[in-house]
Specification:
This protein is an alpha/beta fold. InterPro entries: AAA+_ATPase, DNA_pol_III_sug/sutau_N, DNA_Rep/Repair_Clamp_Loader, HLD_clamp_pol_III_gamma_tau, P-loop_NTPase. GO terms for molecular function: ATP binding; DNA-directed DNA polymerase activity; metal ion binding. Belongs to the DnaX/STICHEL family.
């Protein structure tokens, strides 16, 4: 059995954190003033469903005195709830039972009195997953349930619940467990498991769990599996299980960016990706490092502004992850180019002659005047793109969109490719210091839109036109 199931709290005293919520519910149990519906919100693994089960135990415990709130865990009702076989506690997962038919069945269930207990407890986990018709079907029952029924709705996304549902429940917001409380709980569990684990390992597990106690217990179970009863587990062994943080490599990348050493930055990114690190996770590590730098440099205007620019670039590139899944390192590489371009327009990979802006508004004439410069810049770094751009012309500006006119559809399709388009957009950003979105269309030689080609007069003409469409005029 996994540790988080084995050590699920069976009394309020065992429940970790959420002191205010515990105190309120304990007082309700003693006074007998039980609301007909609870709504527990908060992140995963902090005890929402566990608290719902404790309420079910306390309300239906056969040996609990009216002056106390703790269940006895010895009577038949407590034992059945602990084992999950109680007929008077119905726990539903709304992620897999989310339709109106399930809610109609539930409404039929609550009409009947409990089998042998005082209350029938209905727990709906991940309540935000219910469909709109299901919510509507639940609404009337939730508003005026039978006196013997108590609803407990648990969700990680309360913003997805209809206001009509929220207003009919007593809402309690669960918080993440503090680092110290996670470490203390892990230490107590490891002692009960008769395993010796150093404080540095427990601290690493607690930090990696980020306040989610269930995640922490799952990681502890994996660490314990490395050793055995009575054997001490070292930090080096625990590192085989605890997911590594690459914040040290992220700091190294940021330092290379500040030194404008693009080649070394690209090599580091390649090394990270080859090691199997998810580019999305590494981007988040970089963002976290920049955020920490920003916080420590609040009184340093220069460092603060530089960190803000870098943070903005990395956040925007994190949004490109799904669009560039075909080349996972691309968002990181583009972030490096943009950051170095803002600090030092000339980098180790692409030598761009930066155009000095005379006005804040970028005009089509200015782009046309620098077009040959752009092609020469790309000639040694992206030959295919150079050929495509040589056969096109900047047509017009539509806000921040630059529309290019292509004579041949083959070249137009090349620019439509996300990889090439993003590359070109970033080169233009460094050249003109203004973000442009590239668009395009196929045009005829007289700058009008191309029409469907006429049928060739003979087979020789057909061959010549096909070659011209792909390679241009020779």
């Amino acid at each position: 059995m996994t540790l988080y199931r084995k050590y699920r709290p069976q009394t309020f005293a065992d429940f970790v954190n959420q002191k205010a919520i515990k105190t309120t519910i304990q007082n309700q149990i003693i006074s007998g003033k039980i609301p007909h519906a609870y709504l527990f919100t908060g992140p995963r693994g902090v005890g929402k469903t566990t608290m719902a089960r404790l309420i079910a135990k306390a309300l239906n415990c056969e040996k609990r005195s009216p002056e106390t709130y703790e269940p006895c865990n010895a009577c038949l009702s407590c034992e059945e709830i602990t084992k999950g076989i109680s007929l008077d506690m119905d726990e539903k997962d709304a992620a897999s039972n989310r339709g109106i038919d399930e809610i109609r069945s539930l409404k039929d269930t609550v009409r009947f009195s409990p089998t042998r207990s005082r209350y029938k407890i209905i727990i709906i986990d991940e309540a935000h997953m219910l469909t709109t018709p299901a919510f509507n079907a639940l609404l009337k029952t939730l508003e005026e349930p039978p006196l013997h029924v108590v609803f407990v709705l648990a969700t990680t996304e309360p913003q997805k619940l209809p206001e009509t549902i929220i207003s009919r429940c007593q809402r309690y917001d669960f918080k993440k467990v503090s680092l110290g409380e996670v470490v203390a709980h892990l230490k107590a569990v490891s002692e009960q498991e008769n395993v010796s684990i150093g404080d540095d390992v427990l601290l690493a597990i607690a930090r990696r769990s980020e306040g989610y106690l269930r995640d922490a217990l799952s990681l502890l179970g994996q660490v314990i599996a490395l050793g055995g009863a009575g054997r001490e587990i070292t930090f080096e062994e625990a590192e085989l299980v605890i997911p590594r943080s690459y914040k040290d490599r992220a700091e190294e990348l940021l330092s290379l960016i500040e030194l404008a050493r693009a080649r070394e930055a690209f090599a580091l990114i390649e090394e990270i990706i080859d090691a199997g690190v998810q580019s999305e996770q590494f981007l988040f590590d970089c963002i976290d490092c920049i955020r920490e730098r920003l916080i420590t440099a609040l009184d340093d205007d220069k460092t603060r502004l530089r960190s803000l620019k870098m943070l903005d670039i990395f956040i925007k590139r994190a949004e490109d992850i799904k669009r560039t899944s075909f080349l996972p390192q691309l968002p990181l590489e583009l972030a490096v180019i943009e950051c170095i371009g803002k600090e030092n327009p000339s980098n180790d990979n692409i030598k761009i002659k930066t155009a000095v802006l005379e006005t804040k508004t970028l005009t089509l004439d200015r782009i046309k005047s620098q077009w040959k410069n752009l092609i020469e810049t790309l000639r040694t770094t992206h030959t295919a793109l150079t050929v495509a751009l040589s056969s096109c012309t900047p047509l017009r500006m539509e806000g921040n969109r630059l529309i290019l006119g292509f004579k041949f559809r083959f070249h137009y399709n090349m620019i439509k490719d996300d990889k090439n388009r993003l590359f070109l957009e970033n080169v233009l950003l460094q050249m003109f210091n203004e973000k442009l979105i590239i668009g395009g269309e196929v045009i005829a030689e007289d700058q009008t839109l191309a029409t469907e080609p006429k049928l060739p007069l003979d087979i020789n003409q057909a061959g010549e036109s096909s070659v011209e469409e792909v390679f241009g005029i020779v």
